[in-house]
């Protein structure tokens, strides 16, 4: 598994504002979108392209375009939805599927409650987006699911990660072609499964508590 932690002052600046308990939802949503676009730039470093001829006003030259099958973006509901706009801005021709996975508040174990993904993901590059890599349970379930459907490369884009979650994913995926791109790697998880220092509940910060 490959781990990339963004080390860029603009990303750290935006994450610092996200962490601030006084940052209101509209600003939080806007910053998440901006951050995802910056992280997606790194996450799509290996996106598959094919060569094409391009006629400029001056000469014929070679360029590239995204190759088929198109990459697929999978936001994990609900907080992953807040990252979707930023991701499709960078990959406008990607397909989008949805996975609804929720943590049981007591056991912290994830369970799947919604699935809108193609059955056949053979050969697809999949970008899973979920703001918080905490215990790793949700991400492990999502990765297992897309790999079991034939995906060959999985890149997970998360705003924050806990070392415990990163190690859990690493231990689970073995030799599978899985990458994680994080905005920041935080200190630890607390006893409630929250990332410390973190930013609290990403879904609540994005959408308020009504959708819980
Ligand atoms: N999910 C969140 O939204 N926040 C955390 O800190 C951990 C999991």
Structure description:
- The model has no long low-confidence stretch (mean pLDDT 93).
- The chain is 31% helix and 32% strand.
- The protein has 212 residues and is α/β, with parallel strands linked by helices.
- A hairpin with a 5-residue loop joins β12 (188-189) and β13 (195-196).
- Uracil is lined by residues 79, 132, 134, 193-195, 198, 201-203.
Features:
single chain, 212 residues, alpha/beta, two-stranded antiparallel ribbon, 6 helices, globular, binds uracil
Describe what is shown at a glance:
The protein has helices at 9-19, 25-43, 84-90, 137-148, 163-173, 202-207; strands spanning 2-5, 49-55, 60-66, 72-77, 95-96, 98-103, 110-116, 125-129, 132-133, 153-161, 178-185, 188-189, 195-196.
Strands, helices and their partners?
Blueprint: E1 2-5, H1 9-19, H2 25-43, E2 49-55, E3 60-66, E4 72-77, H3 84-90, E5 95-96, E6 98-103, E7 110-116, E8 125-129, E9 132-133, H4 137-148, E10 153-161, H5 163-173, E11 178-185, E12 188-189, E13 195-196, H6 202-207
Parallel strand pairs: 1-11, 4-5, 4-6, 4-8, 8-10, 9-10, 10-11
Antiparallel strand pairs: 2-3, 6-7, 12-13
The protein binds uracil.
Please give the alpha-carbon distance between the first and last residues.
32 Å
Quickly count the domains.
1
Q: What structural class should be given to the helix and strand makeup?
A: alpha/beta
Please tell me what the overall shape is: globular
Query: Would you tell me the overall average pLDDT?
Result: 93
Question: Helical region count?
Answer: 6
Helix content: 25-40%
| Topology, number of strands | 13
Question: Strand content of the residues, in percent?
Answer: 25-35%
Ions and ligands = uracil
Report low-confidence residues grouped into runs of 5 or more: none
Rounded to an integer in angstroms, the radius of gyration calculated over CA atoms is: 17 Å
How can the largest sheet be summarized?
Answer: 9 strands, mixed
CATH architecture: 3-Layer(aba) Sandwich
Secondary-structure element string:
EHHEEEHEEEEEHEHEEEH
Q: Within the CATH hierarchy, at the fold level, what is the topology?
A: Rossmann fold
Q: What is the top-level CATH class?
A: Alpha Beta
């Amino acid at each position: 598994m490959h781990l990339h932690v963004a080390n860029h002052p603009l990303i750290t600046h935006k994450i610092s504002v996200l962490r601030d308990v006084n940052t209101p939802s509209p600003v939080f949503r806007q910053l998440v979108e901006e951050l995802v676009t910056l992280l997606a730039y790194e996450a799509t470093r290996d996106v598959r392209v094919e060569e094409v001829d391009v006629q400029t006003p001056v000469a014929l030259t070679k360029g590239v375009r995204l190759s088929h099958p198109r990459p697929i973006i999978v936001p994990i509901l609900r907080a992953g939805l807040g990252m979707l706009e930023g991701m499709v801005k960078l990959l406008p021709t990607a397909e989008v599927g949805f996975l609804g996975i929720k943590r049981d508040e007591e056991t912290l174990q994830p369970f799947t409650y919604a699935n809108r993904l193609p059955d056949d993901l053979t050969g697809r590059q999949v970008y899973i987006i979920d703001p918080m890599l905490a215990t790793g349970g949700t991400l492990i379930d999502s990765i297992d699911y897309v790999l079991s459907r034939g995906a060959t490369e999985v890149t997970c884009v998360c705003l924050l990660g806990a070392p415990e979650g990163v190690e859990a994913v690493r231990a689970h995926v073995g030799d599978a072609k899985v990458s994680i791109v994080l905005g920041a790697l935080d200190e630890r998880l607390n006893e409630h499964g929250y990332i410390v220092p973190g930013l609290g509940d990403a879904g609540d910060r994005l959408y308020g508590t009504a959708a819980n």
